Amino acid sequence: MKKKTLREQGIIYLKSISQSQRASLSKRITDHVLHTSWFQGASVIGVTVSKAFELDTTYLIHKAWENEKQVVVPKCFPERDHEMKFYRLTSFDQLERVYAGILEPVAAKTEQVSKHQIDLLIVPGIWFDRKGYRVGFGGGYFDRYLKDFNSVTLSLSTNRQILNEIPKDKYDIPVQHVITEEGIVF
Ligand SMILES: Nc1nc2c(c(=O)[nH]1)N(C=O)[C@@H](CNc1ccc(C(=O)N[C@@H](CCC(=O)O)C(=O)O)cc1)CN2
Ligand SMILES: Nc1ncnc2c1ncn2[C@@H]1O[C@H](COP(=O)(O)OP(=O)(O)OP(=O)(O)O)[C@@H](O)[C@H]1O
């Protein structure tokens, strides 16, 4: 199946999860993340701020702050060759809603953080396979960002989002780890 069809079907699946199910899945997945050395060993964590139908990342963000970690969130530059930069978030008041319902840091209220400062990057996705290949939202932002990223990459997923096979193209860079409500997949 083509990525575009998979993406559309994945969004339908994600939207079909009820609010209470989503909250419970997000919490179970995050609790597994909190127990990993990847989380515990990280001082700076890169993560997207989830929008309505995605797994909720705000619980993870609160836990990171509680554990005195820095949280950095991406801002996209579609006009600049789909570049993405990360900014240090200390409060949800520093976010603004941009296109497609996505929340991004306001550059004037936050400080930019360079790629090599990030210890753990949580990579969003719609579908994953067991090698870490994924179908994302189609901006190609993370494939570009991961090209020269050298620290730990991890994705949050429900069991249902793991497929046996994902179409790949030459730009795709797999994530190192996937964690579901049942625990670490790899
Ligand atoms: N919460 C959250 N933030 C995130 C991501 C994410 O997956 N989740 N991203 C993950 O990468 C980046 C944003 N990704 C984006 C991907 C596509 C479009 C977009 O404009 N899509 C078009 C359709 C494009 C197409 O058809 O190919 C649209 O919605 O009209 C915007 C942002 C960074 N922030
Ligand atoms: N490193 C790259 N350099 C140039 N173009 C790229 C690169 N990575 C991806 N692209 C292009 O970006 C578009 C989206 O890529 P793809 O379908 O893999 O997105 P995705 O993995 O779902 O999205 P994302 O990485 O934002 O989560 C494609 O047209 C792809 O060719």
Tell me about this structure:
The structure is a single chain. The protein has a single domain, classed as NagB/RpiA/CoA transferase-like (Rossmann fold). Helix content is 26%, strand content 24%. The chain has five helices and twelve strands. The protein is globular and about 40 Å long. The two termini are 24 Å apart. The mean pLDDT is 97. The structure holds the ligand Nc1nc2c(c(=O)[nH]1)N(C=O)[C@@H](CNc1ccc(C(=O)N[C@@H](CCC(=O)O)C(=O)O)cc1)CN2 and adenosine-5'-triphosphate. The site of the ligand Nc1nc2c(c(=O)[nH]1)N(C=O)[C@@H](CNc1ccc(C(=O)N[C@@H](CCC(=O)O)C(=O)O)cc1)CN2 has 17 residues, from β2 and α5.
